[in-house]
Amino acid sequence: MSDRAAPVRAEHGEMCARVEALSEGWRARAGATERARSLPRETIVELFDAGLLQIIVPRRYGGLELDWPTMVEAARVAARTCASTAWVMSIVGGHAGIAGRFSRDCQEVMFADGPRQLFSTASVTATGTIRKEEGGFRVHGTWRFSSGIDHATWLIVSGRCEDHPAPPVPNLFLLAVRPGQVRVEDTWHVTGMRGTGSKDVVFDNLFVPDGWGVALPDCFGARPEGAQVNPGSYLFEVPFIPYATSAIIGPILGCAEGAYHEHVAALRKRIDSSASAPSLPLGTAQERLAESAAELSCARLLYDSIVQTLHRAGGDRRPLSSEEWLALKRDRAYLARLCVNAVQRLVLHMGASSGFEGHPVQRHWRDLQSMTSHIDVNWDQAMLAYASHLLGLPRE
């Protein structure tokens, strides 16, 4: 396999330029977004109008159907000003890749009103149960972390199905419903990523017909039913888990870059101020800044490697090998750690001024810590799995 960078479509640069054009507005309302604990309606409209939530929506239904790197890179640029906006772009916007793998009949309904659809998901259950009944599924209880649910037009919930006569391996199903069929509970009181509005959704013995449920292995595996409907993009044909779980790297890296740039701006302001410059330990500040810059440079190299690995494999219409998949998860976790280390060093050096909630570096720092606690960049799991494979040991 060639190490040469796989090409992306010409629209890649245009989409990132659209993000740049909107970024100042997102920076200006970042504080209000945090306080509201959900993206403002204004931001959602901007994202749709700019096509940033339609990047991987199938062209058949009016979407752009661009390559995966474009979605992740656009989110990286957005995260430099607002990580919550970036999360909705790449993580929630990326759920269109799941919708495009459902049956033709489901897709025709999902996109009947056009490509401006937002697919929220919920995969972590607090008390939820899914039971198989004649003709469908009975869903009851609470699922958590439904990012973007305030603006969603569809909700895709996943979970284990009890009493199924022929359960898949693993026994997990995806069920698509309208948000109006569930109750949203405002539980999203958190320290970071507040603007994602990742609230709980509650099902009250809702019946979901068979046609709106699909076994997760069938949906996320190679060549699902939707691949026949959307043959133009590899995202609807190759195994989807590596792409869905790697969308997080754009917001993480961009958020760390945003914190770094804000710190540099604050440091320059202090240097330019004749009142504060004499007391500034400039040599130490410069050393810390340089070390964080080096870590972010390393993180960018890992980012490029992950993006290219997935894009090349997708272009070749092949799944990742076991070695590629384990190395990719290792590198995602290492990227996240580099970003955390780089920003933590700057925050600690800024002193008490960075502790105020409205300070942009503090917001980036809170958001970064929340994102890097996600299971998709979990250090222990990724490193142990990679080392076990390397040494030929059984996985725990």
Characterise the protein shown here.
The protein is built from 14 helices and ten strands. The protein is globular. The chain is of the alpha+beta class and 396 residues long. The model has no long low-confidence stretch (mean pLDDT 94). The protein has helices at 11-28, 30-36, 41-49, 68-79, 83-92, 96-99, 104-110, 216-220, 241-246, 249-272, 282-315, 322-350, 360-371, 379-391; strands spanning 119-122, 124-125, 129-133, 136-146, 154-159, 161-162, 173-177, 183-185, 199-209, 213-215. The chain is 48% helix and 13% strand. The protein folds into two domains: 1-227, Butyryl-CoA Dehydrogenase, subunit A, domain 2 (Beta Barrel); 248-391, Butyryl-CoA Dehydrogenase, subunit A, domain 3, CATH 1.20.140. Residues 27-92 form the Acyl-CoA dehydrogenase/oxidase N-terminal domain. Pfam families: Acyl-CoA_dh_2, Acyl-CoA_dh_N.
